[in-house]
Amino acid sequence: MNCLCNLRMFSLKTFMGLTLLSLVMVVGCTPSDQPEVGRVTGKVTLDGQPLSGVIVNFQPESGRASTAETDAEGNYDLIYIYGTNGAKVGKNSVSFRWPDGAEGKKPLPKKYTGVTDTTVEVKSGSNKLDWELTSK
Fold this sequence. Notes:
Blueprint: H1 2-28, E1 37-46, E2 49-50, E3 55-60, E4 66-69, E5 75-77, E6 79-81, E7 84-85, E8 87-88, E9 90-97, E10 119-122, E11 125-128, E12 131-133
Parallel strand pairs: 1-11, 1-12
Antiparallel strand pairs: 1-2, 1-5, 1-8, 3-4, 3-9, 6-7, 9-10
């Protein structure tokens, strides 16, 4: 009987400890820990044609980058972290690349890939930013 009582007490302590740990983890990962982000959507074209399946990357001066992959019509909606769409408010460097392993895709002009001089100011709220890339 004494052993059964100790087992119940251990289980209750374990349950309470795991519950407290879960609460701490949830509170520690709230959106309030994130910088201010602005929603960023738009369309990417290359030489006037929608650019499907390209990765759009917004890199702020400091902090986490935001990315998106364009759909069949070239539309994108940046993601900051899972469950949060947008990019960090402020100056962001913008680049484009094909996903790893993408074969047979038309090469992107160098001026739009890697570290670029293309920058944009993301504002609080909604930002619609279309990109008309040219191969020349």
